[in-house]
Structure formats: structure tokens, C-alpha cells
Design brief:
Blueprint (H helix, E strand, L loop, with lengths): L2 H17 L3 H8 E7 L8 H14 L4 E10 L2 E9 L7 E10 L2 E11 L12
Parallel strand pairs: 1-5
Antiparallel strand pairs: 2-3, 3-4, 4-5
Helix pairs in contact: 1-2
């Protein structure tokens, strides 16, 4: 398996484990000695990440994260996903960028967009 393919698998496992309800396990297995956060609404560090995921899941116990695609180049892995907080709602489109170093996630950026009820075109956001 190439480094790029390994990085993609690390990010997928990390993201799915965390949002599947096990953020502590995700951090223990897949995060390095630092976690740099570029979302201005989130603090750096793993404790902040764990707290956010726990809070989000406590507010939305039926939360579902559906990763639609994964793209990687070098040490950067990008996921495009649909985050649905409550069944029946369209949710949000997420573009998450992760940097992987020595087999561990160490940095994160994201772009989040609500999925609107109507669209000016017939294309899906996914």
C-alpha cells in the first residue's frame, strides 16, 4: 500500500470512528502528538475535538456521517461528506482537509455548507 493510500485509510478510520461515537478511541489510535485545528470555532488539541464530538452526538444521537469521496496527495487527505444530524433532514456538505504525519492525523481544516431545500440547478451536492 502506498503512503497516499495508507493516509487515506488512516483518515477514513479516524473520521468514522470518531463520528461513529468513539472519539477517544479515534484520538488514541489515529492522532499524533499534536492536533492543530484551523476551524476558527474550534480549539486546538484532542480534548477539544473529543468534547465537540461528544457534545454533537449528545445533541443529535441519530447523527450520520456519509463520506462520499476521499482524495489525497502527499500528506493531505480530503474528504467530501454529508453530515445529517437528524433523519429526514438534508444536513450539511462537508469538505475536510487532514494532514497526516508519520501515520497520524495532526492537522485539520474544514468547509461546511448547509444543504438548501432548493437549487438553481439539477445537480446533487455530492
Amino acid at each position: 500500500m502506498s503512503d497516499v493510500e495508507r493516509n487515506k485509510q488512516i483518515v477514513l478510520d479516524y473520521y468514522q470512528t470518531a463520528f461513529g461515537g468513539e472519539p477517544e478511541e479515534a484520538v488514541a489510535r489515529y492522532v499524533g502528538d499534536r492536533y492543530v485545528q484551523h476551524n476558527p470555532m474550534a480549539a486546538d488539541g484532542t480534548e477539544a475535538f473529543i468534547g465537540f464530538v461528544k457534545w454533537l452526538r449528545s445533541e443529535n444521537p441519530e447523527l450520520r456521517l456519509d463520506i462520499k469521496r476521499v482524495v489525497a496527495e502527499g500528506d493531505i487527505v480530503v474528504t467530501h461528506a454529508n453530515l445529517v444530524l437528524k433523519p429526514g433532514e438534508p444536513g450539511q456538505a462537508l469538505a475536510d482537509f487532514f494532514r497526516v504525519e508519520d501515520g497520524k492525523v495532526i492537522e485539520h481544516w474544514d468547509v461546511i455548507q448547509d444543504i438548501p431545500a432548493t437549487s438553481a440547478n439539477n445537480n446533487s451536492m455530492f
